Amino acid sequence: MTPTNKSNEIVHDALLQATELATQWTFDVKQNAFGWLRLNNTESLRPAAKALAENGARLCTMTAYVEERGENSNKKAIAYHFALANTVVTVTVPLYTAGCDTPVAVPSITSWFRNADWNEREFHEMFGIDIVDHPNPKRLFLDERLDAGIMSSLIPFSAMVHGAATRNLWEQVMAAKGVDITGSDGSYGLENPHGAPTDISTPPIEEPTFTPVSATAPENGN
Amino acid sequence: MNLFSDIVVRSPWLYRINAGSCNGCDVELATTACIPRYDVERLGCRYCGSPRHADIVLITGPLTLRVRDKVLRVWQEIPEPKVTVAVGICPISGGVFRGGHSIEGPIDRYIPVDVNVPGCPPRPQSIMEGVLLAKKIWLDRLNGIAPGHKEERHVSLP
Amino acid sequence: MFRFLKLLGKNLAQGPSTDPFPAKEAHTPERFRGRVVVNPEQCVGCRICHHMCAGGAIRIEDNEEKTGYNFTVWHNTCALCGMCRHYCPTKAITLSTDWHNAHTQEDKYDWAAHYSIPYLACAGCGAHIRMLPPQLAARLYAHSPVDMTDLLKLCPSCRQLAAARREEISNDTHEQE
Predict the structure, then answer these.
(1) Least Cα separation, residue B158 to chain C (angstroms)
(2) N or C: more exposed end of chain B, with fewer CB within 10 A?
(3) Percentage of chain B surpassing pLDDT 90?
(4) What is the distance in angstroms between the Cα of A152 and the nearest Cα belonging to chain B?
(5) Closest among B124, B121, B120, B146 to B135, alpha carbons compared
(6) Residue pair B60/B91 in contact by the 8 Å Cβ criterion
């Protein structure tokens, strides 16, 4: 389908010139147009963002998601949702190259769209997506000592809805009663059924030491 | 002098540290202190604003990674003999946050705790019981009945 | 001008507003959510409480001989939310009004309630089952014409067999008539 009005045509042509890709158009029952553009590589995001900014687009929001189902799938993508005067254009950037699972860094579009700053930093700290040329690559919430992408490594939904609870400290509670549960998964066997990373072993209490912060992490300025 | 100290019991000053608490327990601590209904000053206790004046320290919160070093630094500034009270289930075990990615607690991994007051939050009277228990331990330490374990209470800081 | 006298009189009549605790026992509302208490008679081991518990305060595990299960509540990670009581189908879990929880560090891991709940050997095949609590059975089968006393001591498959046999006998009697 082709765009039906003049301004959409302008955007269509601008994106075609910038990325050499034709935007797909869909229409709802009221004939509102929606543009969809899927880029081949992350580098063509720069010209696309530039072309959209020059045509007066606003960035609504960005969505990071995993494209392929499967527990260890690393095929992430970001969808950039742009709003123009009378249409919405979604530019999708896959963060991998075909036939390869290695994640690819994505250029920052904050220099064209200032509100991308928050989302890009959030994606970096929560999902470990690398952003190139970000003007302010500081963490938003997470402490510097926590690994980036911690949200990708949390408990699977199935484990969560099965009421998996951490077994931390239960060894000591049962030891106080004289029962040794180290190594036992409980014959009911339902705690932590998917091997979710909820067991963080408690270090020995006699040695309350920890590594200095200043040596490993830069000052985060907050 | 002994007779005098037997007659006049010393008054511990309280200090509270928020180790990443949701504020629920802090509100309960404030009610034990600040409103006439509960009134900890009857027990000879008093809240103070500086860790260097404190005798009993009340810690709330599960000890998050962000506040860990600050909490430990403030705790070290409190002079010995001090008594540490963990208020709420979070400092004791981590509570509902146990095993979370930014939780460094339970607090006794780093700090020798003396009294636990579980609850989410504990009611003011329960905290007062904990403070009374702490006061007893503190007086025993002052009188040399229970040693302060100063060496064991060392926490290494960056 | 004499308003303060009125206030003074009112306050004198009212008495002190400070809660006398610890000199006297504090008032505890009837519905206060205190320490969790389990009635082992009523528990059927369905684990819904363990499933619901946000703090992970409940542990249910077979004992070593597999003749029963151990039910443990660790009060030091219990948020007293009452979800276990709410979801318990047999009303085995209640929240007491006991809030005297302050304890020394030595008791930290002892601050738990341990219950040992035995299994029943099925009268038919000997398999371990947890019998339906009698109170609950009385409610469930209040209008049942069949006497459940012996049936409740059977495991589900033996009960099925018993039901089939019962059916057979009643069919035979019908035919004879």
Answers:
(1) 27
(2) N
(3) 45
(4) 12
(5) B146
(6) yes
Q: Is the pLDDT of residue C15 over 80?
A: yes
Residue A40: both structure tokens together: 């081949």
Cα–Cα distance for residue pair A103/A116, rounded to 1 Å? 20
Task: Classify B10-142 by CATH class.
Answer: alpha beta
Question: How many structural domains compose chain A?
Answer: 2
Residues A135 and A160 in one domain: no
- List of domains in chain C: 30-118 (3.30.70.3270), 120-169 (no CATH)
Q: Read off the pLDDT of each residue in B96-102 and give the average, rounded to a whole number.
A: 82
Residue A25 domain-assigned (yes or no): yes
Q: Do A68 and A82 belong together in one domain?
A: yes
Among the listed residues A42, A45, A41, the one whose alpha carbon sits nearest the alpha carbon of residue A53: A45
Which tens digits make up the pLDDT trace of C22-58? Answer: 888 888 999 999 999 999 988 988 888 988 888 889 9
B125 close contact with C: CB closer than 8 A: yes
Nearest Cβ partner of B109 from A142, A146, A208?
A208
Q: Summarize pLDDT for A109-125 with one digit per residue, the tens.
A: 999 999 999 999 998 88
Residue A45's pLDDT is what? 92
The residues of chain A scoring below 50 in pLDDT are: 185-222
Question: Which residues touch C98 (CB under 8 Å, ≥6 apart)?
Answer: C34, C35
Helices and strands (DSSP H and E) totals, chain A: 6, 7
Tokens of A177: 């009663």
Pair (A115, A177) in one structural domain: no
Q: Domain residues for A187?
A: 155-201
Chain A contact partners (≥3 CB pairs within 8 A):
B, C
Contacts of B38 in chain C (CB under 8 A): 18-19, 21
